[in-house]
Specification:
Elements: H1 3-6, E1 13-16, E2 26-27, E3 38-40, H2 53-58, E4 63-66, E5 77-80, H3 84-95, E6 104-109, H4 114-127, E7 132-135, E8 139-142, E9 145-148, H5 156-168, E10 173-177, H6 180-184, E11 193-198, H7 214-222, E12 228-234, H8 240-243, E13 250-255, E14 262-272, E15 275-284, E16 288-292, H9 297-310, H10 317-326, E17 334-335, E18 343-347, H11 352-363, E19 370-374, H12 382-395, E20 398-401, H13 411-422, E21 428-431, H14 435-444, E22 451-455, E23 462-465, E24 468-471, H15 474-483
Parallel strand pairs: 2-3, 3-4, 4-5, 6-10, 6-11, 7-10, 11-12, 12-13, 13-14, 18-22, 19-20, 19-22, 20-21
Antiparallel strand pairs: 1-5, 7-8, 8-9, 14-15, 15-16, 17-18, 23-24
Helix pairs in contact: 3-5, 4-9, 4-10, 11-12, 12-13, 14-15
C-alpha cells in the first residue's frame, strides 16, 4: 500500500522523503515495528512514541508519522501532522479498506447503560436475522469469536481491524460502546457513525489521566453527535441539551417525558422469588407492551434506547418483544436461577455510585432481606472503600465484606477500610476474607424472599493477587456450591 493513499483524508506536511512510498504495515506499537512499515508516534500518558524513533530506524521503518520536530536519516520519509492519534485513526481506516462503510455502525455513549444496551440491540437485531458484531467493556464479539476486552473503546487501529474482521465474517451491523476516553483520544475518528446514542450523564472518570473536569467529560461525550448521521438521546437527562450543542445529526428522543418521540408509561415492577423484572407501555412512534427480565428503572431507559434504534431496521414487534424479554448481560444484574425461594444475582457495581443505584433499585422490590456481598480492589482509592461500605450498610440489611482484587495490598487491610465505612451505616455485617467462602455463606444462609447480590466482579473471571490473575468465576463457584 502507498503512504499517500493512507494520508488521503489528512492535512500533513512531508518534511523529508517520498510521500508515495510503498509501506507493508501500519504500526503504532514500537514492539511491532517491522521492515518497510510506517510507524505512527503516539504521545501517551505513560510513554511517548517519538522516543522510539531510533528503534524504528534500526528495524527498517520506511516512514514515520510525527507531531513533533525530529531528526532522522534522509532515507526515511517523515510526515508531520497536528495530532498523531487523529492520523492513526484515518490511516487505519484506509489501511483496512474503510470497513465502516460496509457496516451499519452504532455507537453508544453515556455514564451508565452502555454495556446492557449494546447487548439488547445485538439481541434484537440478531433475533431478526441481522448478523451484528459488538465491541464493549466486557468483550468483542465477531460472529462466534469472542475476545475479552482490555479497554471499553479500543485503539483506532484495533477498531478498524475489528470492523474488517466483522465484514469478512458477514456482519451487517456493529454496535459499540463509545467511551468518553475513546472519543477524547480520537479512537473513533476516521469514520462517521450511522447512529449515535446518548444514555445519561453523571460525574465520572474525572481526574488523573482521564478528564480534567466535568465540562471536559461532557464535551468528549458530545463529540459523538458531531460524528453520526442520526442521534438518539435520553431526553429526560438534565444534560441532554448540552450534549447536543453543535450537533450535526438528525435527532430523535426517548424517555418518560411527554416530549419524547418514544416514551414509557404505566411502569410496573415484576418480582417473584428467583425473578426480578419490569413491564411498561411503550407510546409514541411505536405502541406495545414491553416486558424485561432485568429489574429497575434504568432497564426501562436501556430498552427504550434499544427500541428507538431497532425501529430504524423495521424489526418485527413480536421479535423485538421476545428479544427484550430474553436478553441477559454477563455481570450486569445477572440473575443466577438456583432457587425458587430467594433471588441471587451477580453485578459489576464496583464504586459507591453504581452500588447505590443497584441497591436502591433492588429495594423497590421489597425483598424480605437485601444482602450485599462485595470487596474493593487493592492499590486503588481508599475513599472508595469507606463510601461503598457506608452505602451498602445504609441500603442492605446485611453486608458481607470480602475480598475483590487485592492486587499488591493485604486483603485484610482493604476489608478493615470497608468495615470502617460499614460502621457509619445501620445495617448488619459479617466479614469473610475468602470470596468463595463468602459466596457459600450467602447461599447457605439465604432466607425465603431474600435478594442477594454479589457485587464488584461482574463479568470478570479472575482474582488478581500479587500481580498474578488466578481463575475465579463466580458462576462456577455457585454451581460448585449448589452441586455439593
Amino acid at each position: 500500500m502507498f503512504l499517500d493513499s493512507m494520508l488521503d483524508q489528512l492535512k500533513y506536511t512531508c518534511l523529508q522523503g517520498d510521500v508515495h512510498s510503498s509501506v507493508t504495515e501500519l504500526v503504532y506499537d514500537s514492539r511491532k515495528i517491522t521492515k518497510d512499515c510506517v510507524f505512527v508516534c503516539i504521545t501517551g500518558a505513560v510513554s511517548d512514541g517519538h522516543s522510539y524513533i531510533p528503534d524504528a530506524v534500526e528495524k527498517g521503518a520506511v516512514a514515520i508519522i510525527v507531531e513533533k520536530d525530529v531528526t532522522v536519516p534522509d532515507r526515511i520519509t517523515v510526515i508531520k501532522v497536528e495530532d498523531t492519534r487523529v492520523a492513526l485513526a484515518h490511516m487505519a481506516a484506509a489501511y483496512f479498506g474503510h470497513p465502516a462503510k460496509k457496516l451499519t455502525t452504532i455507537g453508544i455513549t453515556g455514564t451508565k447503560g452502555k454495556t446492557t444496551t449494546t447487548y439488547m440491540i445485538k439481541s434484537i437485531l440478531e433475533q431478526t436475522g441481522i448478523k451484528t458484531g459488538l465491541i464493549g467493556t466486557i468483550e468483542t464479539m465477531i460472529g462466534d469469536l469472542v475476545i475479552p476486552a482490555n479497554n471499553t473503546t479500543p485503539e483506532s487501529y484495533i477498531i478498524q481491524k475489528t470492523f474488517a474482521q466483522m465484514v469478512e465474517e458477514g456482519c451487517k451491523c456493529v454496535v459499540m460502546e463509545a467511551s468518553s476516553q475513546g472519543l477524547m483520544l480520537h479512537r473513533l475518528d476516521g469514520f462517521t457513525f450511522d447512529y449515535g446514542i446518548f444514555t445519561n450523564l453523571e460525574p465520572d472518570h474525572i481526574g488523573g489521566n482521564e478528564h480534567k473536569d466535568f465540562e471536559d467529560y461532557m464535551s468528549s461525550k458530545s463529540k459523538l453527535f458531531r460524528q453520526c448521521k442520526v442521534g438518539l438521546l435520553n431526553i429526560d437527562d438534565s444534560h441532554a441539551e448540552d450534549i447536543l450543542k453543535g450537533h450535526t445529526c438528525e435527532v430523535e428522543t426517548f424517555g418518560f417525558s411527554d416530549q419524547a418521540n418514544i416514551r414509557a408509561t404505566d411502569v410496573e415492577l415484576v418480582g417473584r422469588d428467583g425473578y426480578l423484572g419490569i413491564s411498561y407501555r411503550l407510546e409514541g412512534l411505536l405502541n406495545f407492551r414491553v416486558d424485561i427480565g432485568i429489574p429497575g428503572k434504568f432497564s426501562v431507559y436501556n430498552s427504550l434506547c434499544a427500541i428507538a434504534l431497532c425501529r430504524h431496521f423495521g424489526v418485527d414487534l413480536e421479535e423485538m418483544k421476545k428479544a427484550l424479554n430474553n436478553v441477559a448481560v454477563r455481570g450486569r444484574i445477572e440473575l443466577i436461577p438456583i432457587s425458587d425461594k430467594f433471588t441471587l444475582m451477580i453485578d459489576y457495581a464496583h464504586n459507591a455510585m453504581s452500588l447505590e443505584s443497584l441497591l436502591t433499585t433492588l429495594k423497590e422490590y421489597h425483598p424480605r432481606r437485601l444482602v450485599c456481598m462485595f470487596g474493593c480492589g487493592g492499590n486503588r482509592s481508599r475513599s472508595r472503600r469507606f463510601e461503598m461500605g457506608e452505602v451498602s450498610s445504609n441500603l442492605a440489611d446485611l453486608t458481607v465484606v470480602t475480598s475483590d482484587n487485592p492486587r499488591f495490598e493485604e486483603p485484610q487491610d482493604i476489608i478493615n477500610d470497608i468495615i470502617e465505612g460499614v460502621k457509619r451505616g445501620r445495617g448488619e455485617y459479617v466479614e469473610i476474607i475468602d470470596r468463595r467462602d463468602a459466596i457459600k455463606y450467602c447461599i447457605d444462609n439465604a432466607r425465603e424472599g431474600d435478594v442477594i447480590v454479589l457485587a464488584g466482579k461482574g463479568h470478570e473471571d479472575y482474582q488478581e493477587i500479587k500481580g498474578v490473575k488466578y481463575h475465579m468465576d463466580e458462576r462456577e463457584i455457585i454451581c460448585d456450591i449448589v452441586r455439593k
